[in-house]
Amino acid sequence: MNIIKLISLLMTIPLVTGHFRYRKRDQHKWHQKFKFCNGKRQSPISLSSSKSIPVPLPALEMIGYRNYLQGRLHLKNNGHSVAMSLHDHASSQRLPYIFGATFPENEEYQVDHLHFHWGAKNSRGSEHMLNGVRYPMEMHIVHKNKAYSNLSDALNHEDGLVVLGIFFQLQEEDNQSLYPILNDLKKVQWLNKTTILGIPITLASLLPRNTDIFYVYKGSLTTPPCNEVVTWIIFPTPVPISFRQLNQFRFLHNEYKVLADNYRQLQDLGMRIVYVRRLDSIRNYNETICNVTNLNWFNNNKSCFP
């Protein structure tokens, strides 16, 4: 490994800090070491289409998501998940970023990394639930507010992070878009193993076909230290994955055993509001787009218009 790649790996700042386990009895004790895990705005939550408030939100704009990320995607088994970190020092090309949706004007969020949560059985694995359904896997694409210098800095601000949540649904056939990841997954079978993805990939290839519809709410990291600095955007349309492909994730190991069931228990929504962007809600408002600065996230004021 050359010195540039080594420096790049050392510069990776993980969201996961400290030692923790996913067993239910262990999750109940997270707050003893990580105080934010006992907060009132924790994630994940159970989403309901009937209880979410439809508003005509702007589209989520994704810039650079169709660019190939060759030689810039580092794959690592950190013992809690398999994570892929992006780095921009080796290329003049900007990292992918997002804007729009519920973000204030001129606010942009740059991709930092993505990771997965999956179950030991096909009936569980995703962190969020949608209309009572728990999918077998969920991917999180983590974005940092460009106003902050690094991920550690972003964790100190309520608008620090945006995470895109993508569900995976089982099907018979392979999802060929996952081949670049799965081809190198065996290289990180064991704890702390790291590799650089050998086949170029685009973030767009990992997204569901329909990204026009999404749920959005204010929450937290789903792993310690559980900072409540995340705007969650969850797409209800799942991405396909075959049984064979999902089982490849279940061959990964942490320091104890096979790495699986790495999802957090559902958290109480409390007084928070979940909004949903649907095309019919935009039509119902005669194509008028919501003024996101008027959104209220924590009580029953549903207005987003002056």
Structural summary, described in words:
This protein is of the alpha+beta class and 306 residues long. 13% of the residues lie in helices and 26% in strands. It is built from seven helices and 14 strands. The protein has helices at 3-10, 24-27, 30-33, 151-154, 179-185, 243-249, 279-284; strands at residues 46-47, 53-54, 60-63, 73-77, 82-86, 97-100, 109-118, 129-130, 137-145, 161-171, 194-196, 214-219, 230-242, 275-277. Strands 2, 3, 4, 5, 6, 7, 9, 10, 11, 12, 13 and 14 form a twelve-stranded mixed sheet that branches. It has a two-stranded parallel ribbon with strand order 1-8. A hairpin with a 4-residue loop joins strand 4 (73-77) and strand 5. The longest helix has 8 residues, at 3-10. It is globular and about 50 Å long. It starts with a helix and ends in a 22-residue tail after the last helix. Mean pLDDT is 90; it is low at 1-13.
Let me know the number of strands: 14
* Helix share bin: 10-25%
The value of Rg in angstroms is 19 Å
Global shape: globular
Number of helices: 7
CA-CA gap between termini: 56 Å
What's the structural blueprint in terms of helices and strands?
Blueprint: H1 3-10, H2 24-27, H3 30-33, E1 46-47, E2 53-54, E3 60-63, E4 73-77, E5 82-86, E6 97-100, E7 109-118, E8 129-130, E9 137-145, H4 151-154, E10 161-171, H5 179-185, E11 194-196, E12 214-219, E13 230-242, H6 243-249, E14 275-277, H7 279-284
Parallel strand pairs: 1-8, 2-14, 10-13
Antiparallel strand pairs: 3-6, 4-5, 4-11, 5-7, 6-7, 7-9, 9-10, 12-13, 12-14
